[in-house]
Design a protein that fits this description.
single chain, alpha/beta, Rossmann fold, seven-stranded mixed sheet, 24% strand
């Protein structure tokens, strides 16, 4: 069974983290308890959008090493302080109009298999829940979704020379869609599968 760590710095554990998809186990630890030894037995690390980025920056060497040695990391949110060496700061997309945030799917990938772009773009009829900005991917990354109007990337994945895997999502925590009745619900379990497939 794949073993993930979820860093917690809020009171409640999200339902999708507390009850992960079959075949995966998620251990919840306090963000400030993270250290190199925490990741020894972990296959993947799940980072939510509300973490203390200054603290994560202080752990950059630990996170870079985990990724460089073959670990997998999923990052959510409009980050202001990059805490991995390959990340850059978040940039808003567009001028605040709904049309700026309409998404298209990029490269074919197991993470987004069977997902309709419109189900990411619209939630309860509103555009912009999924993402409203970008963190530019590093060279060699694969863009999974992008903003139709600007062609700027939204979600992307990158693989390190050591086989580590990074998924970056610039919006609200993607596991918040796990109970949706649309195809967007597929992303969470498919991402966990990808993070632990070798």
């Amino acid at each position: 069974m794949a073993q993930f760590l979820y860093l917690q710095n809020t009171v409640d554990v999200p339902p999708a983290i507390a009850a992960p998809p079959d075949g995966h186990d998620i251990e919840v630890i306090d963000q400030y308890e993270l250290h190199e030894g925490s990741l020894v037995t972990a296959d993947g690390l799940l980072l939510c959008q509300h973490l203390d980025e200054a603290h994560l920056q202080s752990q950059r060497d630990v996170l870079d090493a985990f990724l460089g040695l073959g670990g997998a990391i999923a990052v959510n949110g409009p980050i202001a302080r990059p805490f991995l060496s390959i990340l850059s700061s978040y940039e808003p997309v567009g001028e605040g109009h709904a049309a700026d945030w309409i998404l298209e799917l990029g490269a074919s990938h197991s993470i987004t298999a069977g997902i309709e772009a419109d189900h990411l773009t619209r939630r309860r009829g509103v555009i912009g829940f999924w993402a409203r900005g970008t963190v530019m991917p590093p060279p060699g990354a694969i863009v999974l979704s992008y903003f139709k109007q600007s062609r700027l990337p939204a979600d992307w994945v990158w693989t390190s020379d050591g086989g580590g895997r990074l998924f970056f999502h610039p919006g609200n925590n993607f596991w918040g869609y796990a109970a949706d009745t649309t195809s967007a619900a597929k992303l969470y379990p498919q991402l966990l599968d990808w993070m632990t497939s070798k």
